[in-house]
Amino acid sequence: MENTCKELGVVIVAYSPIGQGLLADGLTPRSFPSIRVSKMLRLEYDDVLPLRRAVRRIADSHGGGGDRETTTTTTKTMAQVAINWCVAHGTIPLVGCRSARQARDTLGCIGWDLTQDEVKELDRLALSRSTLESPRWRRHLFVTLAGVVMLVCRGLDWFGWGMVKEAAI
C-alpha cells in the first residue's frame, strides 16, 4: 500500500502513532490490559516489551532520561520517538492530545530526527509480531472495514467534498 500511495502522490495519515498508549511512558503491566488495542490484537505486555525498551533507550539517547512527566526541550519521551518514527516513514501522524501537557509533549517532536539505524531497529521490532496471527475472521473484518473507508473517501472525492487543496500550518 505504501508504494502505491507514493506512486499516486498520496501521503499516508498515521492513525494512533503512539499505539493508543502502547508506546507512551506511563504504561505499566497493570494498566496494559485496559488499552483497547491490546485487547483487539490479544497482546500481552511481554509482546510489546522489546519495542518499548528500544523506544525508551532511543528517547534517552536523544537527551531523555529526565522527569518524564514534565517534558522540557532537552528531554525526549517515548511518545515523541513514536511520532518521529511515523514522520521518518513519510507519514503525517494523527496525534490526539487530551491535555496541555500532551500538546506540549507533541511539540517536542519538532527539531530532531531519528537516525536510519534507529528507524530500522524499531521497524524490525514492530514487524516481529505479525497481525496475521489473529483469527481469519478478524483479518477479513479489518480488510472489509478498510474497503468501506476507501469507498466513502472515493464518494466524498466524487462529490468534491473530500479533496484537500492545501494545508495551512
Automatic annotation (TrEMBL):
Any one GO cellular component localisation term in the record: cytoplasm
Species of the source: Odontella aurita
Superkingdom of this protein's organism: Eukaryota
Coiled-coil boundaries: none
Protein name in the entry: NADP-dependent oxidoreductase domain-containing protein
Domain (NADP-dependent oxidoreductase): residue spans on this chain: 4-125
Entry-linked Pfam families: Aldo_ket_red
GO function terms (MF aspect): oxidoreductase activity
InterPro entries to which the protein is assigned, alphabetical: Aldo-Keto_reductase, NAD(P)_OxRdtase_dom_sf, NADP_OxRdtase_dom
Keywords, alphabetical: Oxidoreductase
Species lineage: Eukaryota, Sar, Stramenopiles, Ochrophyta, Bacillariophyta
